[in-house]
Amino acid sequence: MLRQELKRVFKSRPALALSAAVLALSVLMAASTIRSVTAYPAPGETLPDGAPYLTGLDAIEYERQRSAPYGGWLTQERIDRFLAEGAEPVISALRRAQGKDSADYYSARKAYIERMVASRYGEDAAAAALALDESAAEPFYYEYGFGDSDALIDLELVQFAVALVCAATASMTFVRDYSTGAGDILRCARHGRSRLARAKALSAFIFGSALYFICCGVFTAIVLAAFGTDASAAQLKGEYYSVLILGGMSTNAQLLLCLLAGWLSVLAVSAFALWLSACTESPVAAFALSVAMAVLPLVGMSLLAGGGVCLTTGMMQQLASAGFLAIGSLHIWTPIVMLAAPALETAAFALLARRAYVRHECK
Asked: Over the stretch 256-271, which tens digit does the pLDDT of each residue have?
């Protein structure tokens, strides 16, 4: 039964067309990430052929060679020398936390975390943040890699597109049979209720997972082929205020965490779409509400099903904001919430979808 439902989903022309479009978007976004890298000559240097700047792979290679002297473990002695020399690119990350009058970057960073978190969430949250940050091994490690580009931001665009496609396809899972009358016939079969509902839900999850890992895998493979991996401390990379990232996390680990959060969010969006599909007999309503659930986190509703792949509330933003969710006297780091919430939502909406389909009576 599951095999038949999988064939039904994977051979659907709308699903194939949307999947092909998202896959093409993944390739284009990876190419855009590489193309967007721009390198300007350092004072006193001249680029090949006298070019004013480099882009793409040439810029990546130039920046890798330029950053090589600053690679390795950033001891306080090296940090002081880099700041004195005005060395790029690490100086911008270092100056985020270390003021002109501060003699120690690492103690200044912890003081900055405590000050920022306390101003937004209170002293208890600041203490929780410092406790989480105890696992950050010092000194930090630095090397040039994909963290110096917009790769993680562009990855969120790919994840968001995949979530929209999964919402659209999953929203037709049950309601399509309602609208054609096939649901009445299937419900008369021996396994036409509970077992069929389970098979339909699993096929939607398998399709969404396959699409997610193919698209994000293609994007990641292209980006890593151009930049290489990045073992740098995540606190030194990124367009956001990454100095607030807590714990001993490398940029490679940050990428894996973003991929995990995105996958869980795609499953949650699919589960919500399945529930809507089982509850309504209107394909248009099921489709519209399912897509809306994937889009709503754009206005700040980060705990909704699509929060982990949203451009404003995704995992990268949660890591860089040092946010905390207060439940009484308990303060929970928001990246943990962003992993737990979609996992719970997936289980809850999948059970609700199964229950709604089993009890549904066509008019």
From this structure: 999 999 999 899 989 9
User: Residue 101 — very low, low, confident or very high, per pLDDT cuts 50/70/90?
Assistant: very low
Within 36-170, where are the H helices?
56-67, 76-85, 90-94, 105-121, 123-132, 151-170
Beta-bridge partner residues of 327: 330
Q: 0.90 exceeded by the pTM?
A: no
Buried b (16+ CB within 10 A) or exposed e, 343-356: eebbeebbebbbeb
- Tell me which residue has tokens 């079969």: 189
The answer to whether the Cα torsion of 286, 288, 294, 296 is positive or negative is negative
Three-state DSSP state, 308: helix
H-type alpha helices, 228-297: 251-279, 283-295
Provide the sign of the torsion angle of the four alpha carbons 141, 145, 148, 151, taken in this order. negative
Give dist(CA 53, CA 296) in Å, integer: 40
Q: What's the angle, vertex CA 122, arms to CA 118 and CA 127, rounded to 5?
A: 70
